[in-house]
# Entry
Amino acid sequence: MRIKKITPQVLTWELDGGFRNPIMTWTHKTVVLVFVVCDDGTVGVGECWASGAEPSALVATLEDDVSPRLIGKDPLAIGANWSEIDGLSQISARQGILRAALAGIDIALWDILGKAAGLPVWRLLGGFSDRVFPYASAGLYAPGKTPADQGAEMAGYVAKGFTGVKMKVGGASFDEDVARVAAVRDAVGPDVRLMVDALGIMTPTQALRFANAVAPHDVYWFEQPVAPEDIRGLAAVNQRGPIPVSANENAVDRGHFRTLITEDAARFIQFDVLVVGGITEGRRIANLAEAWHLPVTLHHAASAVCMAANLHLAAGLPNCDSIEYHMLHQWLFDRVPDSDWALSDGHIRLGDKPGLGLDITPDSL
# Structure
């Protein structure tokens, strides 16, 4: 079996701009999928991180830099193929976009490996558990949305079977955000996990003040309270504040996570396989965290391919705390049978479909 063709495909959905987080308003969503086609007809699907930028440079990187180096290679030699592409960044100094492109390839290759073996990817990754804990990620800002509205929204997700919820903070006044957190805790009750996410918009002083104000509402973690590159600031909030820090979903390599860990800047190590270069690098980061007795939590804010890749890795890890189930970013979720990711006792149970278990092909889009 050899790699015959690599095809990126760009999908875009228009949004009405009615929702925002602390740093941006959603007017459209772009997804970049990658299809790796083998000479025996096997097709693997992957996805690249494409948020916050136009997709043309990413597609060019896939077509001009990545594909020529992988055509004709063995798709099952995942580690060798990963190193081949990642090594390009040493000279080009374009690690971020190369890791995004590499993620799509790597995920597709794991999908192919699973299909070749007749096994789901989560079993190939160690099969630690067929159950993953998802939390409903939402709590976005919208015009006229009150703390009571916020509480009702999050209670609605609990009614659907989620036993953990996450909301945005940092996009309103201090008092309003504290009131929003209080309203959500009152609405979901004492037994549901409640997390808050500031997307790095606060200073360490602001983050500590906010953490102390909402701590009485039993907040499980404070996600990315300050800028992700401010390791000292994250460490200050993590060590001096009453709520453990979760970080950093937009970091691209294990060197960043090594520093996070050794500086005690986060108690929950959070990453997304689309950002770090795929399942291969995600597993290395999780192993690093495990060596320090730290849990990982996996990010998701894209399509069903992103969700599937993170789900399969999560199920293969002994130290995975949870996975984000975004209530806005559910692109192509209609291609997944409802029974596949159905909630049972607050968990998603993975099945035994080969590969990622998705029926998404270039022709089907």
